[in-house]
Every structure is written in C-alpha cells, then in structure tokens.
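Figure 2 data, in text form.
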Amino acid sequence: MAEKISAKLLLHPVNFLAFGFGSGLVPRAPGTAGTLVAIPLYYLLQTFPLSLTSYLVLLVALFLAGIPICAQAARRLGVHDHPGIVWDEIVGYLITMTLAPSGWMWVVLGFVLFRFFDIVKPWPIRWLDRKVGGGFGIMVDDLLAGVFAAAVLQLVVVLV
C-alpha cells in the first residue's frame, strides 16, 4: 500500500511528519522503518539533560501533536490508518524507552519489544485499533504498545 504513495506527499509539513520524515514511504514494513527513525531521535534526546518529568511532558506533547497530524494525513489519503503513517510508531518507541538504561542493548530490546506489541496487538491494543477512530485512534494503540513494551523492558532491567 505505501509504495503507491508519491514522495511529493512529503512536501506538505503535516505529511512529512506523519510519514516519519519519509520513512513511511518504504514499500515493505513502513512501521518498522518509522520505528527505526525513532532510534536516532531517542539518542538525540539523550544528549539533553532531560528530567523524567521533562521527558514525559515531551512525550505527551508529541502524542497530542500526533492526533491532528495523523488525522490530517489520513483524511488527505482517504484511508483511516494508512501503513505509511508512522508518527504513532515514533512516539510509541519513545514511550517504550522511558526509564530505559543507557546502552545499545536496551535500544535494540526496546525496538524489538515495541515492534512485537505493535504487530501482535494483544488485548486491549487490538480492540483499540479496531474500535477507536480518527487521529486519536491512530495514536492510542501505539501508545499502549509503547506502555506494554516499556513495562516488559523494565521487568528485564529488574531481572538482569
């Protein structure tokens, strides 16, 4: 589906953001590509001395911004949750990495866990994905996938 979208779509700033700076245009696994884009963003955030509160406020702001961003892009495409819309994956991964220890192993584990929950969509993620519409619907299932992945990541931190 994503391969049929023209790169000209990215000329509009909202689409540029919704499609993860272009990563959502890859023909296969655009959600994975969008999540990969989140990794350098996560590393960039780590260069700033953000407190947990500041990081959480930023996540809330990115989530809230994602609601109209994703809704507008979906409306333009005429598809509720086009696979190329990956802003939600970016935010979901950043949620996963809340309180993650530093180190590449945790970055990779966070990536794997988030993709697992985003793809498998255990209850109630799948229910939200099917029942909640609009920009909020696009964002909320990835928010919950990020929370689930963060919880498992923290469990691994405690066990290791």
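Caption note: The mean pLDDT is 93.
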